[in-house]
Write a structure and sequence with these properties.
Largest sheet of chain A: 7 strands, mixed
Number of strands of chain B: 10
Helix content of chain A: under 10%
Oligomer: heterodimer
Low-confidence stretches of chain A: none
Order of helices and strands of chain A: EEEEEEEEEEE
Mean pLDDT of chain B: 96
Strand content of chain B: over 45%
Low-confidence stretches of chain B: none
Shape of chain B: globular
Structural class of chain A: mainly beta
Helix content of chain B: under 10%
Strand content of chain A: over 45%
Mean pLDDT of chain A: 96
Distance between the termini of chain A: 39 Å
Distance between the termini of chain B: 36 Å
Order of helices and strands of chain B: EEEEEEEEEE
Structural class of chain B: mainly beta
Radius of gyration of chain B: 13 Å
Shape of chain A: globular
Largest sheet of chain B: 7 strands, mixed
Chain lengths: 121, 108
C-alpha cells in the first residue's frame, strides 16, 4: 500500500524550531518529487516547499523562504522539513505529498494525514 | 503569484443532481498544470483531476474537469452522499504553486 506518514509536529514557542519527517512506503521514493503543503485551522491549502528526486533542487513559498529547509534521504525513504524561526502564522497541519512525476510542476497524487504544528507562547 | 478564485463558496444539492464548480485564475494557466482535489473533514486531500481534464487513478467518471486559460470547471454528475466534501483547485504552472480557497459541496 502506498503510504506517507508524517511525524514531528507539536507545540513550540515563537522563534523556536521543529523538524518534521515523512516516512514513505509502497512506491519508489527516489523516483518522485515530494512536497510539503500546510493547512491552517479552518483555512485552505498552502504550498510550502518541493524537492526533486535527487534532492539538489528545492523550491519554497516566499512566506517560509530563509526559515524552512526541505531535504530528503532516499536511502531511508524519508522526507524532512526543518522549520526555524517559527511564527504564529506557521500554525497549521503540515502534509507531505508525492508528486505525480519527477518535476515539482506536478499534481500531488498521494498525501499523508498530516502533523499539527502549533506556534504559541 | 497566481490567485485562484473558486465559486461558489458553498453548494447545497440533492443526491442525483449535478454540480458545477468554478476556478478562475488571475492570469493564464497552462491546462497541463491545473488540478482538483477533494477533501473530507479530518482527511487528507485526494487528487481527482490533473492536467485540467485527466482523472486520477480510481476516480469515477462522474467527476470531469474542463477549461483553459483562466477559467476551469469541475463537474460532478449524479451526486452521491459520499461526494460531500471541500473541493480545491491548484495551479502548478508558475511558482509559487497556489490553491483556491475551496468550494464546499453539501448533499441535502
Amino acid at each position: 500500500e502506498v503510504q506517507l506518514l508524517e511525524s514531528g509536529g507539536g507545540l513550540v514557542q515563537p522563534g523556536g524550531s521543529l523538524r518534521l519527517s515523512c516516512a514513505a512506503s509502497g512506491f519508489t521514493f527516489s523516483s518522485f518529487g515530494m512536497s510539503w503543503v500546510r493547512q491552517a485551522p479552518g483555512k485552505g491549502l498552502e504550498w510550502v516547499s518541493s524537492i526533486i528526486p535527487v534532492g539538489d533542487s528545492a523550491y519554497y513559498a516566499d512566506s517560509v523562504k530563509g526559515r524552512f529547509t526541505i531535504s530528503r534521504d532516499n536511502s531511508k525513504n524519508t522526507l524532512f522539513l526543518q522549520m526555524n524561526t517559527l511564527r504564529a502564522e506557521d500554525t497549521a497541519v503540515y502534509h507531505c505529498a508525492k508528486g505525480v512525476g519527477v518535476s515539482p510542476r506536478n499534481a500531488l497524487d498521494i498525501w499523508g494525514q498530516g502533523t499539527m504544528v502549533t506556534v504559541s507562547s | 503569484e497566481i490567485v485562484l478564485m473558486q465559486s461558489p463558496g458553498t453548494l447545497s444539492l440533492s443526491p442525483g443532481e449535478g454540480a458545477t464548480l468554478s476556478c478562475r485564475a488571475s492570469q493564464s494557466v497552462s491546462s497541463s498544470y491545473l488540478a482538483w482535489y477533494q477533501q473530507k473533514p479530518g482527511q487528507a486531500p485526494r487528487l481527482l483531476i490533473y492536467g485540467a481534464s485527466s482523472r486520477a487513478t480510481g476516480i469515477p467518471d462522474r467527476f470531469s474537469g474542463s477549461g483553459s486559460g483562466t477559467d476551469f470547471t469541475l463537474t460532478i454528475s449524479r451526486l452521491e452522499p459520499e461526494d460531500s466534501a471541500v473541493y480545491h483547485c491548484q495551479q502548478y504552472d508558475i511558482s509559487p504553486w497556489t490553491f483556491g480557497q475551496g468550494t464546499k459541496v453539501e448533499i441535502k
